[in-house]
């Protein structure tokens, strides 16, 4: 490399092969070397020693200060052999550095090769791209150099303890947690995706099935403290049956990526783990997830641009639940239109059987023509009709299972896989007959019946188990897991072939969503949130995963705190949705009747939503930390105006209004329609007082 100021700076920041200036003194047993091979930038640096152990650090934000050590030296990429031996140390034999330029732009790559005493060669390749600072791409391969087969039990990558940092700016917490976390896994108890890490916290975060019909998710875990966060995940474009454990430890957070290959390495044979990443960031998980979205889009997994209809507010007939009838729907439509809603969704209960998807002859005696008449009646009210369906589920008494048992997804013991909510069985998404049958359903619902959208619903749709059905002739049982995204793509392409403006909503009912399915839908809801907090944390996460203008819906407002918290939907830029009943309710014990008081509130919020259309703005998720910043604050910029949404049980005090461009702004509480005063940016601070929420529009003066 030429010894010029530019190349030297690039050398220090991106390659960093010289000894780390100001690095912590190694503790007993750690190597003391004049030169440590490594790669990094100011946000994150990885160093390796002569045994291929690694350590993470980052540059102090003050500059010129000693580096910040994020993890101590540890064997972070290891193999567990069938004998029970953990192979952790590999004598470094070769180091290669080079510039790279490809799918993710220009960058640098460091490759290290080492050999263990067990005769296994390990190759570790780390890449850093200019457009993704603090984001390390990690590839690990093992080769059997011995003359005997070697059984592999498991592998672990990025296995390290993220240290708790204390300083005058970040003292040890008094009673609270030093860390918050985001885990992208799915759980039957529908727990929060974002949680404080308290003593004893432990989640395995398996990306396969965690219950018979709950599984999959976003293959990322992220833990952050006030000053810095650290995340790990995988970058494969197909789902992987890996775990991402996150555990509260003595000195911080233990995190890793782990898999169980269950294979043997023959002499000379190589085994590669999935491509992984390690990322450091400031603030909460938004920065990691946003970078992950952009990287995966470059690899071909990008969510489509939502059509205009995906932003229209929604009424769903689920307020009537399965007792819903066409008459109840038709009587409600005038109020739906009057309130300014755009969609009428026909939910669960229209069908005779899960799997057959034929109209219930009691409710629709004319069958398909009656379904088309209902869709046409909705259109006559200037509303858009959407139909609920739960593909890949088939009830035991359905004609489908009677005639086509070969479609079933079977476990290794030959048993069908249960879809619990509908007491049904899974169909295999990677079986061609399942795909063709489901495409035919889409053609019937959108083409023959003239619905303008589909609500594809069910916790079982986020992932599936490996399939052992011999009729499918799978090369590997995992083909079902990997083929789910292709199944959804076939449905999406079929739907768009009928109507290019179709809205395909995917509602995975309380699970963690799956990036691999996003390319085949253009609207996603909060999916049965159990609190307003879940509406907001899911909104922040899904806007990072889908892009700042995502058509994310807050789901039925009746699921929020107080059953009326529109502020948690409108404020974060989500599509509003409701399942009210009107003018009566056949189930008064659990009523969603739109009373006069409710109607006044519903009308106010729906009008504000339609007036501002905040989902079409730019969600600025990096401005506030959803865990540590109080009050909880979200910001959307649209047409030069900034919309702040603040949430707390009760707040009285100053609020720093981040993100404003330089200038003076008039602040207006747009729900209560009152002026709050003016502020000067940058550095704008305003004393505020509110209960539950406050929504503010900052208008340039």
Q: What this model shows, in words?
A:
The protein has 701 residues and is an alpha+beta fold. The strands form 6 sheets. Strands 7, 8, 9, 10, 12, 13, 15, 16, 21 and 22 form a 10-stranded antiparallel β-sheet that branches. Strand 23 (314-316), helix 3 and strand 24 (343-346) form a beta-alpha-beta unit. The longest helix has 20 residues, at 479-498. The radius of gyration is 27 Å and the shape is globular. 49% of the residues are buried.
Ends apart, CA distance between termini: 52 Å
Number of strands: 39
Q: What composes the largest sheet?
A: 10 strands, antiparallel
Low-confidence stretches: 1-34
The amount of beta strand, in percent, is 25-35%
SS-derived structural category: alpha+beta
Strand-helix topology:
Layout: H1 5-15, E1 38-41, E2 44-48, E3 54-58, E4 68-74, E5 78-81, E6 86-87, E7 91-102, E8 105-115, E9 120-129, E10 135-144, E11 150-163, E12 179-185, E13 194-197, E14 202-203, E15 217-224, E16 229-234, E17 242-243, E18 246-248, E19 252-259, E20 263-265, E21 270-272, E22 276-281, H2 286-298, E23 314-316, H3 326-338, E24 343-346, H4 368-380, E25 384-389, E26 393-394, H5 399-403, E27 418-419, E28 424-426, H6 432-448, E29 453-457, H7 479-498, E30 503-507, E31 524-525, H8 532-546, E32 552-556, H9 567-570, E33 575-578, H10 596-612, E34 618-619, E35 632-638, E36 641-656, E37 663-669, E38 674-681, E39 685-700
Parallel strand pairs: 23-24, 23-33, 24-25, 25-29, 29-30, 31-32, 32-33
Antiparallel strand pairs: 1-2, 2-3, 3-4, 5-6, 5-11, 7-8, 8-9, 9-10, 10-21, 10-22, 11-19, 11-20, 12-13, 12-15, 14-18, 15-16, 16-22, 17-19, 18-19, 26-28, 27-28, 34-35, 35-36, 36-39, 37-38, 37-39
Helix pairs in contact: 2-8, 6-7
């Amino acid at each position: 490399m030429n010894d010029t100021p530019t190349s030297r700076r690039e050398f220090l920041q991106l390659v960093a092969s010289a000894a780390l200036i100001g690095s912590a003194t190694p503790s007993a047993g750690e190597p003391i070397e004049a030169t440590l091979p490594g790669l990094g930038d100011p946000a994150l640096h990885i160093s390796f020693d002569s045994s291929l152990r690694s350590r993470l650090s980052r540059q102090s934000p003050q500059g010129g200060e000693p580096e910040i050590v994020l993890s101590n030296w540890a064997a972070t990429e290891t193999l567990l052999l069938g004998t029970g031996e953990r192979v952790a140390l590999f004598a470094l034999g070769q180091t290669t550095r080079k510039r790279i330029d490809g799918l993710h732009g220009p960058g640098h790559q460091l490759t290290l090769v080492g050999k263990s005493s067990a005769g296994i060669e390990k190759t570790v390749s780390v890449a850093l791209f200019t457009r993704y600072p603090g984001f390390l791409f990690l590839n690990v391969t093992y080769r059997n150099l011995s003359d005997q087969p070697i059984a592999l039990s498991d592998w672990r990558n990025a296995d390290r303890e993220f240290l708790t940092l204390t300083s005058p700016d970040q003292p040890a917490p008094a009673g609270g947690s030093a860390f918050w976390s985001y885990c992208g896994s799915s759980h039957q108890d529908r727990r929060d995706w974002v949680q404080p890490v308290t003593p004893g916290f432990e989640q395995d975060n398996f990306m396969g099935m965690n219950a018979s019909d709950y599984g999959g998710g976003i293959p990322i875990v992220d833990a952050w403290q006030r000053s810095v966060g650290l995340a790990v995940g995988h970058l494969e474009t197909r789902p992987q049956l890996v775990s991402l454990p996150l555990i509260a430890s003595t000195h911080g957070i233990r995190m890793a990526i782990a898999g169980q290959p269950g294979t043997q390495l023959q002499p000379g044979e190589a085994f590669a783990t999935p491509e992984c990443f390690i990322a450091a960031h400031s603030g909460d998980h938004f920065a990691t997830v946003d970078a992950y979205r952009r990287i995966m889009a470059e690899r071909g997994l990008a969510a489509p641009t939502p059509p205009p209809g995906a932003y229209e507010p929604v009424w769903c007939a689920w307020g009537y639940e399965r007792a819903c009838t066409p008459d109840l729907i038709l009587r409600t439509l005038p109020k739906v239109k009057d309130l300014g809603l755009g969609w009428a969704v026909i939910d669960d209960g229209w069908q005779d059987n899960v799997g057959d998807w034929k109209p219930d002859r009691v409710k629709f005696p004319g069958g398909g023509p009656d379904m088309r008449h209902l869709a046409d009646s909705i259109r006559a009210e200037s509303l858009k009709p959407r139909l609920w369906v739960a593909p890949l589920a088939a009830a035991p008494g359905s004609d489908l299972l009677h005639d086509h048992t070969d479609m079933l997804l079977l476990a290794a013991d030959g048993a069908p896989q249960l879809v619990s909510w509908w007491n049904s069985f899974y169909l295999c998404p990677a079986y061609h007959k399942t795909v063709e049958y489901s495409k035919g359903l889409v053609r019937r619902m959108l083409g023959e019946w003239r619905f303008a959208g589909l609500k594809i619903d069910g916790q079982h749709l986020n992932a599936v188990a490996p399939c052992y059905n011999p009729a499918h002739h799978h090369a590997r049982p995992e083909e079902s897991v990997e083929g789910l995204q292709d199944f959804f793509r076939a449905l999406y392409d079929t739907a768009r072939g009928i109507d290019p403006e179709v809205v395909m909503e995917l509602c995975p009912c309380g699970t963690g969503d799956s990036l691999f399915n996003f390319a085949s839908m253009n609207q996603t809801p909060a999916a049965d949130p159990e609190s307003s907090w879940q509406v907001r944390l899911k909104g922040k996460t899904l806007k990072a995963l889908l892009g700042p203008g995502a058509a994310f819906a807050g789901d039925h407002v009746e699921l929020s705190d107080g059953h009326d918290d529109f502020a948690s939907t409108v404020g974060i830029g989500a599509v509003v949705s409701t399942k009210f009943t009107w003018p009566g309710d056949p189930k008064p014990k659990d009523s969603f009747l739109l009373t006069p008081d409710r109607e006044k509130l519903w009308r106010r919020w729906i009008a504000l939503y339609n007036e501002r259309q905040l989902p079409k703005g730019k969600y600025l998720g990096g401005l506030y930390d959803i865990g540590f910043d109080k009050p909880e604050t979200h910001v959307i910029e649209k047409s030069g105006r900034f919309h702040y949404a603040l949430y707390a049980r009760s707040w009285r005090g100053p609020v720093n209004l981040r993100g404003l461009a330089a200038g003076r702004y008039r602040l207006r509480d747009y729900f209560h329609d009152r002026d709050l005063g003016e502020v000067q940016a940058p550095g704008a601070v305003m004393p505020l007082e509110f209960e539950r929420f406050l929504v503010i529009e900052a208008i340039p003066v």
